[in-house]
Predict the structure.
Amino acid sequence: MTVTAPRTTDTKHTAPGVHATARIRAVTSGDTTDLPVLDSDGPFDLRRSRSHGKQARVCILGAMSAPLGGDRLRIEATAEQGAHLHITSAAATIALRGPTPEHATYDVRLTVAEQARLHWLPQPLISTARSNLHQTCTIDLAPTARLVLREEQVLGRANELPGRLTTRLTVRHDGHLLLDQQTRYGPDAPAWDGPAVLAGHRAAGQILIVDPAFEQEPSGVRLLGEDPAQGQAVLTPLTGPAILVTALAPDVLRLRRLLDMAHPLA
C-alpha cells in the first residue's frame, strides 16, 4: 500500500504493531444501497465510490504501510437483507518485514444476509522477503445470498524470494460448511514451490462464486490455459450452489488474465 501517514503503535496493547479494525455495513433503502457504517481505522481508509445501480461501492485506500510484523488488522463487512455491496482496494497490499519477528495478522470477516450480494475484489497481496503474514477470510452466507470473491497472492517482488505467508478461507452457507482451505508458502512450508503446489510459478489466485442459481444449473469442470508454463486455471463446482476457479501463473498479469477468462464462464 502507498505510505501516506506515519505508523503508530496502539498503546492499549502490549504487543508491538498496529491494532486496527475497519467496519462496513450496507443496508437497502428503496432502490439503492446505503452505507450507515463506514468506519476507517489504522491503515484502512474507506472511501465511498460512485454507486452502480443499486450497488454501493467502497474502495480501501492505504493510510500507512501495512501489514508489518506484529500488526493485528481486521476488516468486517456486512451486507444486510437485500443490499448490494462491492468492495475493492486502490492498490496492492504489501506484506513487509516489521520491527519484530512476530507474524502479522490480516483478518477479513464477511456476512451476507438473505437476497443480498457482496463482491469482495481487492488488489493482489504481495509477500516480500522476510515478511511473515497470517491471513484469514471467514464468510457467512444466508441461503439466498450471493457472493463473488477474488483472491490473488504474489510470492516475492521481482527477483526476490517471498516471505512466510499462510492464508485460510472458510465459507459457510446456510450454517453449513461450504469451503475450508488453507495454504502455506515460503520458508518452512513443505514443498510449496514443488510440482504439487506452485510448480515454479510465483502468482496464485482464485475466484469463488456462490449463487443459488447453481442449484438449478450446476457448472461442469473446465480447464483454461493451453500452456502450463504460461499458467493455467481450473473451474470446479463445489458441493452447494458455488463454483471455485483456481489459477497459477508466472506473474500477476497472466494470473489476472486467466481469472478474467474464467469469470464469464462462471
In short: Confidence is low (pLDDT under 50) at residues 1-6, 9-13. Residues 19-202 form one domain. The helical segments are 252-265. The first helix runs from residue 252 to 265.
